[in-house]
Amino acid sequence: MRWRSIVGEAWRNVVSGTAFAAQLAGFIGLVGAAAILIGSFDIMAIAARGEQYRDAGANVLIIQSPGSIDPRACETLNATPGVIAGALRRASNNIVAAALPGSRIPTYEITPGLAGLIMAEVAQRAEGVLLSGPAADTLEVAGDQLATTTGAVRVGGVYPYPDDGRRGDLEFAVLAPTAEVSQFDECWIETWPPSAEAEMLLRTTWIPSGPSLTSDAVLSQWNGTLGTTFGGQQLFESRPTRWLPALAGAAAFGIVLVTGRLRKVELASARHCGVTLADQWLIAMSEAGAWALAVVALAMPSTLVALAVALPGDEATYLQLGVAVLVLTIVGGLAGATVSVFLSGERHLFRHLKNRR
Fold first, then answer.
1. Within-domain flag for 11
2. Contact 238, 43 (CB under 8 A)
């Protein structure tokens, strides 16, 4: 058969409904859309676990060595891509608030980098000390002024400190940013995603003072209740829904094969009338092009657009999932059409006619 005859025969089958193109487009589109949605929600759950880990400060590592941390080296870590770092030490004098004259508020000196880490979710209003949320709620803070027994202290911001397992010494405290370059007690570092190099970077800020190079420095997490690390990559690679694109392809194969078997008398009759196997396969592929085009143009893109609107974030991951599902469903459908053609040979015509009801 000539190409014009092949395309014309396929077009007539599609327009007349013989090829079940609309039904196939609908079923395969639904299968693909379901695979994308289920897989995307699984990815979103992993991302939510990562955000919970990060929001709790579990990704913040701390090296502690009283009087042995170089604040300049700690601040220099901020030049590393994806790193926020800063130093902390206990202040020589604690602030005494006028509202609580009998109690001293734990006061710490911090470098600018640590202020950015602690205040990650809240913008500083101005220069001045930083108060924890519980401290600000307890003390009498008028505007941006904290009344103390020695005079007013300017408050540059209030940092949140939820009771979620993070260490408690900063829960009720005052942090005083300073430009001092004398040695500090701690260096904090935040990386996301968690980096194996964070510990190594922290150790570059430590100035060992004794014969041992490791025993005097203690590494810890700001919040250790959620585990020592977050294996996001491992969770992504081992997620149960990673097989969904392949399952969608298998489902498309089955749907098209069943549809092709519904036309077995028609296909066998065409072979009896002289249509070659190659020509019949080309007609089947041309018919498949109609439902495949509909899936490519409508079902998958609309699903991905809906995901991009509902789940903003890592669009590249969702696009990768969508492309994988799209390719495998179409390949599976084409394979189903191919098998249905090969199973409907001329030699089966009379058996098909006999079994037809």
1. yes
2. no
User: How many domains is the chain built from?
Assistant: 2
230 part of a folded domain: no
For the purposes of burial, counting CB atoms within 10 Å of the CB of 18, is it exposed (0-12), middle (13-18) or buried (19 or more)?
A: middle
C-beta separation of 68 from 207 below 8 A: yes
CA separation for the pair 88, 110 (Å, rounded): 5
**Are residues 269 and 319 located together in one domain of the fold?**
yes
Residues 196 and 303 grouped into a single domain: no
Q: In this structure, how many other beta carbons lie within 10 angstroms of the beta carbon of residue 316?
A: 8
- pLDDT of amino acid 352: 52
Co-location of 217 and 85 in the same domain: yes
**DSSP state for residue 105 in the 8-state scheme:** B
Average pLDDT rounded to a whole number, residues 322-342:
90
| Distance from C-alpha of 7 to C-alpha of 284, rounded to nearest angstrom | 10
Q: Which structural domain, as residue segments, surrounds residue 324?
A: 3-51+235-355
- What does the DSSP 8-state code read for residue 68? E
Mean pLDDT throughout 332-351? 76
Contact 333, 256 (CB under 8 A): yes
Residue that terminates a domain, selected from 167, 202, 225: 225
For residue range 16-64, what is the model confidence (pLDDT) as tens digits?
887 888 899 989 989 988 888 888 888 888 888 988 999 999 999 999 9
Rounded to two decimals, what is the model's pTM?
0.77
Give me the chain's average pLDDT, please: 83
Report residue 78 as tokens. 């901020």
For residue 172, is it within any domain?
yes
154 plus 274 within the same structural domain: no
Phi and psi, residue 218, nearest 5°: -115, 130
Beta-bridged to residue 151, according to DSSP, are 148
pLDDT at residue 120 tops 60: yes
For residue range 83-94, what is the model confidence (pLDDT) as tens digits?
999 999 999 888
